[in-house]
TrEMBL record:
Residues of the signal peptide: none
Organism phylogeny: Bacteria, Pseudomonadati, Pseudomonadota, Alphaproteobacteria, Hyphomicrobiales
GO molecular function per UniProt: 3-keto-5-aminohexanoate cleavage activity
One Pfam entry name: BKACE
InterPro entries cross-referenced by the UniProt entry: Aldolase_TIM (IPR013785), BKACE (IPR008567)
Domain of life: Bacteria
Protein name: 3-keto-5-aminohexanoate cleavage protein
Amino acid sequence: MIVQACINGARPRDFHPKLPLTAQAMAGDAAACVAAGAAELHIHPRGADGRESLAAVDATVLAVRQACPGTLIGVSTGAWIENDVTRTRAAIAGWRELPDYASVNLSEADAPAVMDLLRRRGVGIEAGLATMQDAERFVALADHGQVLRILIEIDIQDLSAALDEAHGIAAVLKRAEARRPILLHGVDATVWPFVELAHQKRWSTRVGLEDGKTLADGTVAKDNAEIVAAAVAIFRSLPAKARRVETDSCGAL
């Protein structure tokens, strides 16, 4: 049960004045997030032009690892980054400074091949499920049990509809007995309700400028570290003698 910091994502430069876009900016920001209580880091490396780039993984992971020794670092493999299956696979195959894990979106056609490549490279996998269809595809994979964790990541902005989708994903996972650790997160309007839900279920969560720039009261956060600190405070409020549940495992919402 952890809070992961997602520090930039695909957000544009003008999304927030403290959005980290260079390797050194990400390293400094990541260190501040770890100091604020983040247990892990999820980053989207950028090239010299500021655009997301899988080719920039080596330099960025190295810089962040030097700033945050011992902290697990993950990256995205989103198909939109290289916008070409061959380039995506070639970039991953060429990584020299391997991240600890990488997220793979099951909505993308090449997801099974990307997952296989990551396994062969010794990189952990976060299986990203945004819909019930993603979940059905995931549990149909023969090696779905060989992932680091499952991300239930909902980008629907209507909270009721978002909860319904999350309910459906969890039901698919439970039916298939896909008992891998779960990290639940929302985007923008659903960030903080989903942090609270993850806290209640004793699942992991993530926060940061990739997912939203406001605090729970709607005010714009000054930086990633402030967002992380707020989420960590929620997670640390769990009563010491709380009933033990299936920590970070699949179950109904």
